[in-house]
Each structure stands twice: as C-alpha cells, then as structure tokens.
Amino acid sequence: MGTVLSIEAPGQVCLIEEKLPGIPEGGFMLATAHSGVSAGTELTYVKGTNPYLASTWDPALGLFTEGTPSIAYPVRGIGYMQVGLVVETRTRAVSEGALVAMCYGHRTAYVADPMADRFVELPDDLDPILGVYVAHMGPICANGLLHAAHDLHGPAVQQLGDGVRGRRVAVVGAGVVGLLTACFAMSCDAAEVVVVDETPARLAVAAALGANVLAADNDPAMDLKRRWRHARDDRGADVVFQCRGQTRALALGLRMLRPQGTLVDLAFYTQGAQEVRLGEEFHHNGLTLRCAQIGRVPRGLAHAWDRERLSHETITLLRRYGRRLREHVITDVVGFTEAPEFLSDLAAGRRQSVQAVLSDHVEDEGG
User: Fold this and answer.
1) Which parts of the chain register pLDDT below 70?
2) In this structure, what is the dihedral angle of CA atoms 30, 33, 34, 35, given to the nearest 10 degrees?
3) Angle, nearest 10°, between helix axes 137-153 and 307-328?
4) Sign of the four-CA dihedral 359, 134, 106, 21
5) Res 362: pLDDT
6) Looking at the whole model, is its pTM more than 0.85?
C-alpha cells in the first residue's frame, strides 16, 4: 500500500491510501524520498483555475474546446518533481538502493516500468533533495534557454547557452522557474543577468544566487534601457525570460526588450492575458514573443536536444549552484502527512514559499 495526495474539489486536499500494482518483469519499486511542490501548476488544481477542469483538450487539433472537461475531480497524483529510492528491482536497468528522479506525482511509493516511465539516476555527488529538479523542472527552464538559442541560431544550436552567452538578459519573476532560468543564464556566461520581481524577499534570493535585481514597481524598463545600450536608439535587453503567470509581468517584459528583441515566455496564464498591450512597444519595436513549453523543444532540434540532454544540463547546473539553491531556494521541507494543509494554505495565500518539498526525512533536511 502507498499514500497519494488527492484534491477532492477546489480547496479540499487530503491523503488517501492506494494499492500498489505488482512489480512487472523489468520493473522496479520506489519509496519516495522527496517530492517537490509546484506553486504554479499544482495550485491551479487546488484553486480550480486549471483550464483542463473546464474544457476539453484536443491533442490532435491543439485546441481547448467546450465539452466534457479533460480532467475532473478528484485529481490524484499531481506533481512532477519526485526523487525515489529503489527498494526492489526486477531489471538490470537500475539497482536496488539507487536514487532516481521521476515524475509520478505526490505519492509515498510507486511501481515503475522502464519501458513506459522515464527516470534519471542521480549521481552520488548530488544532494538528493536537489534531485527534484532533474526530471522535469530543470528541463523546463533549460528549454527556455534552448528557445533563445534557436531564436538566434536556428537549427545550428550547439550549446545550451548559445542564445545568452555574452548577451544582456532579463528574467521576470523570481519564483522557482525564474530563479533556475537565471542560474542557467549565469552559468552559460551571459554578460549580465537581471531578475525583476515585485517581492523584496524573492529579489533577495535572486541576489544570493548571484544575479542583479530590480524591483518591478520602480519602472525597471526605464532603468534597463538607460543602462543597456547597444547603439543609437537601440537599448534594452537582448532577451527576456518571462517566468511569472501574471499578464502585467508579460507586459513589463515586452517593455524591457531592445528593438527586435525576443521574449521567451515560460509562464502559464490561467486567466488569459487581458492586460497585455500590443499597440505600443510590441508593435513599434518589432518584438518577438516565443512560448517555451516543455512539451516541445524548438523545431529542428528534437533529435539533439531530447529530455535526457536537458536533464543532463540540469545536473551540470546543480553541481555548480546546488549549495546556493539548497540554502536559498528550498524554503520549506514538510512531511507528507502535512501536505494537504500545506497546499491548502499556499492556495489560499496563508503561507508563502519559494520551493517546498514533501519529504519523509524532514529532520535530516533541517525542516
């Protein structure tokens, strides 16, 4: 038996017992060590704002349409940042005692099939709790940089940092996606990385990671365009990574770009984008807006830049920034039994967290 997180209805979160299937030939069983919480996507299910809950997703057409919702309550097993300990194996693909990163939702145990489930074995020199970023969250951010590289070089991209190396980069939003994206850009030798956010505490985290910071409420577009000059009448960021699911953040990101600059958008706008202004800077400066969604890498790069490579790039980043990420970004480590109350509090705004991790090793992690 195992325990799985269940969202029964908006605002109603609980834990339920689930029977685990038998381990198939070639499969293995995991005991969850750490499970990272996405304060963006996951909370849309707790709040009831996720579009899958109100409409039908047609993958063939790539459209949301009216009809039976694609997902209905109860929603169980959400979450995509898991680290599991292999406790039993029937395959030579992974050994008992190995730690692997996977995406199987907030549950205390899982039976995996390597022919159906993607997993990444974690190296011994990596703090296991940082493994929550390896399977999915890190690749999300790395894919943002890959889109910036493709925007500059097309299918000739060689290195992840080809779109930011030596360039001036702004990151809007100092949540986990923004902070990891900023670290990727710094690691790839951007000339300068500036993180913009409305929350002083989150800007302090970005500064602790090594980025320069600007408060979003003091017209950072004016500051950056005075500071970043390329030529006469050519000022602003070479590339902006928009990492906050607020339309005002997207509007701000467009204002910070140099003429013909590119904004790579990693955010999720559950309420649409009514505040975005396309009659001003977007039109007059000839800007480019690119959506970087983890379901796709840029056209023409899939053969060379699959999810495995993006996970490898994430491990490389964690080796360089792991200590600072552990100290400044992972702000909450709570037990699985506390998860329902914790997620409910996050969704209702009663608690704030940068990165929360559910763990059965709270004392070991100092939580």
Assistant:
1) 361-367
2) 30
3) 120
4) negative
5) 52
6) yes
